[in-house]
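Q: Here's a chain of 281 amino acids. Please give me its 3D structure as tokens.
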Amino acid sequence: MADRWQSTMDHAVAIARKAGEMVREALLADRKVETKSSSVDLVTQTDQKVEKMIIESVKEKFPGHRFIGEESVASGESCILSDLPTWIIDPIDGTTNFVHAFPFVAVSIGFSVNKQIEFGVVYSCLEDKMYTARRGRGAFCNGEPLQVSNQNDINQSIIATEFGSNRDPEAVDKIFSTLRKILCIPVHGVRGAGTAAINMCLVASGSVEAYYEIGIHVWDVAAGSLIVSEAGGVLMDVEGGEADMMSRRIVAANCATIAERVVKEITPFSPQRDDAPLEKN
């Protein structure tokens, strides 16, 4: 039986590499930075150019496919996940890292059919690490199989998270209240790469045991979520139960035991707590 989506995934890997080249070239040039809703919510011309390149390339090859892209949504397009084949794109996950040449910058491409992710591609441009996963066929980094950590003791774990772009004191207090609970479990440490996609790939690689965040978007987690689950990990909502990519919150972990303990310590608050643009219906 023919593999319906292999050529589609091959194209995603190819354009992720091309996007990575654009990012690396831009790092050598003057990086013109704009802000969205606050002084720390950044966007660059490279974000916009990369997304435009990806969408144009896909439209040419797969004219019937749909798109959800970070910069497109920021410009006013709708963020609706339908049953149709849909490319979910974050052209530069880790824009602040990119602006500062901090070495964790990713191109993230998820592909959904019937609201289910069929494949995920995360290219860590500056590390030259290509993370890929196909539903039911495993996860890989540069062609080598990925496997989550076998650690089931949260006291022996590293937990990853991020801090969003909202610098309102009340929001920051809630973030650090949750962080204090996690640290006081105690855990070995808390880390953050500055990009949701790479944080999830670190879970899949066995480098950290769990990652949680509230306020993210579907383009942040679409590809990484499949990479985690195909590497043997689990996904949960921050209040427990099944994860929903459109809910703007996630716990990704190596096992249910650690995921459930992270959930227990998180105090959920509004998923609109960050400054990213809200989805438009």
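Q: Can you summarize the key feature?
A: The longest helix spans residues 6-27.
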